User: What shape does this take?
Amino acid sequence: QVQLVESGGGLVQPGGSLRLSCGASGIIFSIYNMGWYRQAPGKTRELVALITSGSSTNYTNSVKGRFTISRDNTKNTVSLQMNNLKPEDTAVYYCKAWRVGIERWGQGTQVTVSS
Assistant: This one.
């Protein structure tokens, strides 16, 4: 059974940092593309960053230069380092694993940026 479990969310002041992690089980992690999405209240879920099975990365414009996605295929984890956080980064952050014909989501972790 595929399971994705996010951790690392919390409350942080503007300008602060957080590191989100997503642990995967039940899949051959190295062949899956991985991504972080977020959903703020009243808004649709949006892609924040992705890393392919070949470790190519892509970011939404609003987080470029502030967020870094990485993966560790030996530990079946994908991480999102978030620096210089802004109030508009407040959202529930979700981990997603996908390949052709298959996608799986984690349960989400709350990130709140507020003074």
Observations:
- DSSP finds no helices and eleven strands in the chain.
- The CA atoms of residues 24 and 76 lie 6 Å apart.
- The first strand starts at residue 3 and ends at 7.
